[in-house]
Design a protein that fits this description.
Blueprint lengths: L5 E11 L7 E6 L20 E4 L17 H5 L7 H5 L5 E4 L1 E4 H10 L30 E5 L7 H18 L4 E6 L5 H10 L2 E5 L5 H8 L4 H13 L3 E7 L7 H14 L4 E8 L4 H7 L19 H5 L4 E3 L1
Parallel strand pairs: 2-6, 6-7, 7-8, 8-9, 9-10, 10-11
Antiparallel strand pairs: 1-2, 1-5, 3-4
Bound molecules: iron/sulfur cluster (3 copies).
Length: 319
């Protein structure tokens, strides 16, 4: 019998429409090496389960302040032990994240795979020069692995994908496997990710190395190397850029982002995707018992000018 691996999953979204072509199921893995100031998935940062609190239903009984063995009350780091959840009379505490086995996740995907199908309306042109990803097929619905950063669980991811490929071979069915990554991982982990995915969403936070470090806590060198591997791999990919007003949406930054993509000379680059910053992030930080102090004007709409992409011959959309 195959050995099962586990990885921390914090959400599974069915019928997602922003995570790739067609009908999709998105698996969100916990754990990320980056700390983007605007991250809208704070519960995806820690690689461990953690408590989430809906304060709108809290009746302020104080029981959660006196839980024996609570690491959060001791040092501010929740171990996800769950003791406070059963003690809360208002039911406003839950644990985000659980260790999911590779066999269970692959089985869940396989069971609903009939709902995945071809997609001709995703708006992406499949370049003739890029390799097809399955018997000449164009875009297909399927599963997307996101996070957090999925390469943090690359052994698990490889095992899930191996099971899915085996299922497709046996059943004769087909669906696509996509991964969303920041590329913030070793070259070897990234190459292994490319071995799993039919389609990659690559997030680029900022093109300037110093700004990148200041905004995310991580160097961009490794990320840009991985972006080049991706371009050379000929695996279809979309380059994503979250637009945070006044932080990384200047005209210069959009020009630099478009020029970076053009410099890759990658026929497998499907398009650039600009994602306006999600203003709902603050509420999630509160629930995750984390602080959030945006230094930008959340009411301001980000710059979504696509002309730099047009000038550089890169197809681009605002999502
Ligand atoms: S789950 Fe609750 S009791 Fe356990 S460490 Fe976290 S806050 Fe404390
Ligand atoms: S135990 Fe629940 S209801 Fe009581 S203070 Fe804590 S969160 Fe609020
Ligand atoms: S890479 Fe993604 S998950 Fe990680 S901190 Fe940045 S926005 Fe959040």
């Amino acid at each position: 019998m195959d050995k099962e691996l586990t990885a921390p999953v914090f959400d599974i979204k069915e019928l997602s429409v922003y995570d790739g072509p067609g009908m999709r199921l998105t698996v969100f893995l916990k754990g990320c090496p980056m700390r983007c100031l605007w991250c809208h998935n704070p519960e995806g940062l820690s690689p461990r389960p953690q408590v989430m609190v809906d304060r709108s239903s809290c009746i302020h009984c104080g029981r959660c302040d006196h839980v024996e063995g609570c690491s959060y009350n001791a040092d501010g780091r929740c171990s996800g032990c769950g003791r406070c959840v059963s003690l809360c009379p208002a039911g406003c505490r839950r644990i985000s994240g659980y260790y999911a086995s590779s066999a269970d996740i692959a089985g869940k995907i396989a069971r609903i795979s009939d709902m995945f199908g071809p997609d001709d309306g995703c708006g992406m042109d499949y370049p003739a020069s890029a390799p097809d990803f399955g018997g000449g097929r164009r875009f297909y619905g399927g599963v997307t692995f996101s996070g957090g950063e999925p390469t943090m669980h690359i052994d698990w991811l490889e095992d899930v994908c191996r099971r899915l490929r085996r299922y497709m071979a046996v059943s004769g069915g087909f669906f696509s496997i996509a991964a969303e990554t920041s590329g913030c991982c070793s070259e070897s982990a990234f190459r292994r990710l490319l071995g799993c995915a039919d389609l990659v969403y690559f997030d680029i936070k900022h093109t300037d190395p110093e700004r990148h470090k200041a905004l995310t806590g991580c160097d961009s060198g490794m990320i840009l190397n991985n972006l080049r591997f991706l371009a050379e791999s000929r695996i279809p990919f979309a380059a994503r850029h979250t637009l945070v007003p006044g932080v990384n949406d200047s005209q210069n930054e959009l020009e630099a982002f478009a020029a970076l993509l053009a410099s890759l000379g990658a026929p497998s680059l499907l398009r650039a995707e600009l994602l306006p910053y999600n203003t709902a992030a603050g509420a999630k930080y509160k629930m995750a018992l984390m602080s959030f102090d945006p230094a930008w004007d959340e009411k301001r709409k980000p710059n979504t000018d696509l002309s730099p992409f047009v000038r550089n011959g890169i197809k681009a959309v605002v999502l």
